What we know:
The radius of gyration is 17 Å and the shape is globular. The protein has a 6-stranded mixed sheet, sandwiched between helices. The longest helix has 27 residues, at 198-224. The protein has helices at 28-35, 70-75, 82-94, 126-143, 153-160, 166-169, 189-193, 198-224; strands spanning 7-8, 14-15, 54-55, 61-65, 101-105, 112-115, 118-121, 147-151, 173-174, 182-186. By secondary structure, it is α/β, with parallel strands linked by helices. It binds uracil (URA) and iron/sulfur cluster. Iron/sulfur cluster binds next to α4.
Amino acid sequence: MPLALILLHSSGMITTSAAEFVPTTHSLAKLRAAASHCEGCELFRRATQTVFGEGKRLATLMLVGEQPGDQEDRDGHPFVGPAGRLLDEVLQEAGIDRQKVYVTNAVKHFKWIPRGKRRLHSKPASREINACRPWLDAEIEAVGPRVIVAMGATAAQAFLGPKFRITRERGQWIERGDDGPALLATYHPSAILRAPDPESRHRLRAEFVADLKLVAKRLKADKNS
Ligand code: URA
Ligand code: SF4
């Protein structure tokens, strides 16, 4: 790892992960408070604030995105910008109430590069996804969802490693053997917003809705079993 990317603490200790900032607790409020001081990777330096997950405490469904966007970075809440509006629409079409879901991101700080007056989204590196993973693990422990939906390549990578391909493997249940949550990967709403033409946008959106309908169906079956 290049030296510049390793944060040197005042104590002289090298920090490359959030692990040392994560308290042992199932209280989301305590986790959120601790995350606001995380310096587990270099991304905290240029972002406005930590954007922690939000939603129902014992939600059966956890949605995981990539990282906060420009608006989320300013507001301090996940999925409140354009991608969040699309997510709201698609959840509604799939019959899932966002109020009953816990929504978070694989990486909790906004990574960006300046482009004129704008702050341009920049994809988190594997080391940043790995550094932030302890927060995601703590959220999963605290919320205890039955189903996790990874939206986009970054979230999928956090759970399934860098070889996972959304285009080939989305919309399929990934059972992980233990009694833990089932996992399904699908598109990130921003991928739909970025689609090159109306036809592909329409197709991606329909596939996104279909994947979330699978999720709704499973949650319903779970509830009745
Ligand atoms: N994109 C994400 O991945 N997460 C957000 O919170 C907003 C946009
Ligand atoms: Fe900590 Fe994650 Fe922010 Fe890095 S991105 S400083 S690991 S909260």
